[in-house]
Automatic annotation (TrEMBL):
This is START domain-containing protein. It is found in: Cytoplasm. Residues 1-194 form the START domain. Keywords: Coiled coil, Cytoplasm, Lipid transport, Transport. One of its GO terms (biological process) is ER to Golgi ceramide transport. SUPFAM superfamilies: Bet v1-like. InterPro entries: STARD11_START (IPR041952), START-like_dom_sf (IPR023393), START_lipid-bd_dom (IPR002913), START_lipid_transfer (IPR051213). GO terms for cellular component: cytoplasm. Its main location: cytoplasm. PANTHER family: CERAMIDE TRANSFER PROTEIN, PHOSPHATIDYLCHOLINE TRANSFER PROTEIN. One of its GO terms (molecular function) is lipid binding. It comes from Acanthoscelides obtectus (Bean weevil).
Length: 200
């Protein structure tokens, strides 16, 4: 996994944009996005999650979430309200190749859930998960198995922590939590899919 961060501050708060690139054998981009987008799986892999509610089902590929995350000392507890959209993208570079898949999470507002009215500080985020499946067909024309596929995952995020917290503390949280989060999530997808038919 390669991780790239740029140190940026908005109103004195660290909002460091992050890009992580991670290639995982044995899974497809559709499978990665399916398990990242699906609310029914999130408590399985998102261990910093305390509560998650689907506020709105806009369509089968677009949901509005309200999430409360566990407090990460010494920062106060956070919540986040965002729309999440999953879609397939045509492979412009290889029309015969597998499609790309993406999930975008973007902070939004909701009249019934104004920010910062309870114990939580509202964070604001933009997240893009872009997945490119690679197929290396078996030489002898044998059927395709999970040994012949891999997925290049590009995860980009900008998280505005909402309320002030020392930049040094936030950067330590970012540095510790993101690699754990991405490794845990991808290991979850490998485990969920290993005995299932490949979902392209
Ligand atoms: O990709 S997602 O959309 C997946 C859906 O859940 C998503 C990812 C990350 C967050 C998130 C929420 C709060 C916090 C912090 C901010 C100050 C104190 C808590 C963090 C910091 C960056 C660290 C972090 C990174 C990764 C995972 C958990 N923690 C991240 C929310 C959503």
């Amino acid at each position: 996994m390669r991780m790239y961060r740029r140190e940026e501050e908005v109103d004195g708060m660290a909002v460091d944009p992050l890009k992580a690139v991670h290639t995982v054998p044995g899974i497809t981009g559709h499978e990665v996005c399916h398990y990242f987008f699906g609310p029914q799986y999130r408590y399985d892999w998102e261990t910093t999650l305390e509560q998650m509610t689907v506020l709105e089902t806009v369509s089968d590929d677009t949901l509005v979430f309200l999430q409360t995350h566990k407090r990460i000392w010494p920062a106060s507890q956070r919540d986040v309200l965002f729309w999440s959209h999953m879609r397939k993208l045509p492979n412009e570079n290889d029309r015969d190749g597998p499609d790309l898949w993406t999930v975008v999470n973007n902070s939004t507002t909701h009249l019934d859930y104004p920010p910062n009215v309870g114990k939580c500080v509202r964070i604001y985020l933009k997240v893009c998960l872009l997945c490119q499946t690679r197929v290396d067909p078996p030489k002898d024309g044998a059927p395709l198995t999970r040994d012949n596929i891999s997925c290049k995952i590009t995860y980009c995020s900008v998280v505005n922590p909402g309320g002030w917290a020392p930049a040094s503390v936030l950067r330590a949280v970012y540095k510790r939590e993101y690699p754990k989060f991405l490794k845990r999530f991808t290991a979850y997808v490998v485990n969920q899919t290993k005995n299932k038919p490949i979902m392209f």
